[in-house]
Amino acid sequence: MESFVIKTPSSSANIGPGFDVIGLALTIYLELHVTIDRSKGSSEHPLNCRVTYEGEGEADISLDPQSNLLTRVALYVLRCHDQRAFPVETHVHIKNPIPLGRGLGSSGAAVVAGVMLGKEVGRLHHLDNDRLFDYCLMIERHPDNVGAALFGGFVGTYLKPLTAADVARTEIPLSEVLPAPAGGVDTGKKPPEPPMGIGHHIKFPWAKEIKAVAIIPDFVVPTHEARAVLPEKYTRPDVTFNLQRIALLPVALGQSPPDPELIHLAMQDRIHQPYRQTLIPGLTEVVESMSPKTQAGFLGVCLSGAGPTILALATDHFEEIANKIIDTLRRCNEKKDLRCEWKVLVPAEGTHVIR
Ligand SMILES: Nc1ncnc2c1ncn2[C@@H]1O[C@H](COP(=O)(O)OP(=O)(O)OP(=O)(O)O)[C@@H](O)[C@H]1O
Ligand SMILES: N[C@@H](CCO)C(=O)O
Question: One Pfam match, by short name (predicted)?
Answer without folding.
Answer: GHMP_kinases_C
